[in-house]
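TL;DR need structure tokens for one chain.
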Amino acid sequence: MTMAEVEQAVRTRAAELLESGEVATFLGWENGRFPHQTTPLVASTAAQAEKLVWNEYCVNTLAKYTRDLAYRGRVGIVVRGCDSRGIVRLINDKEISRDDVYLIGVGCPGMRDINDAPLKKCLECRHKNAVLFDEFIGEKVDEVTPDGRFAEVEAVEAMSQKERAAYFERVYSKCIRCYACRDVCPCCTCRECFVDARREDWVGKQNNLPENRFYGITRVMHIGDRCIECGECERVCPMDLPLMTMNRKVIRDMNDLFGEFESGMEIGETKEKLMTYETSDPEEFM
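>> reply
TL;DR here they are.
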């Protein structure tokens, strides 16, 4: 099936689910105000489902929206690899239940930005097809594992201590603390983020290098073994910070210490590296 055929099939199926009452809302994408642009769409009627699109500009990962829609009833949603892994993550974190969502899986050929250039996060994607779904529309795309998953991490590790210090200073001095990375991340689900916890005073509200660095490093460690590598944090960052380099540094270290693991691949995961332990775990750092 072509993307246009998948689009029409999704519209038809979404309308059926909404009309039957099987879902209260249906989540997908609609055309934006400008060419080569889409925006998330929450449809609550069959007529609104006709606005749904499926094309190479559906850049937003949708999973996190389900958390705020589930109170209205079951949510229908189009899921690719990244969206479905986000759903798995939310279920495992007990933010939603499996019964809260009806998943229509699709295969993703890779998305493009508003300038028609391939998205970096899609070039790095390891799972293009939905890993969890109730039904699948269209054909699955070929899964090709990209090279150089940790190339940027290795480049930073190869720096001298002085060079690394300067590198991180450049990175975090640019941060404007807009929290777009936190807000878009399907792993950032705390009802009160540590940066908003005024009574505990974890971190100040000023925009300066030490506090920016504290925020960035704390967030990376907090999602370390739950990151699904969707790349949304880096995509939405208005300052183009290399946030996935930070995330993958933690992922690589955990893989080296505890063995290969990818988050968001199956419901009921018990292998999160920072949530479990074994008496045989290495303790070289002690």
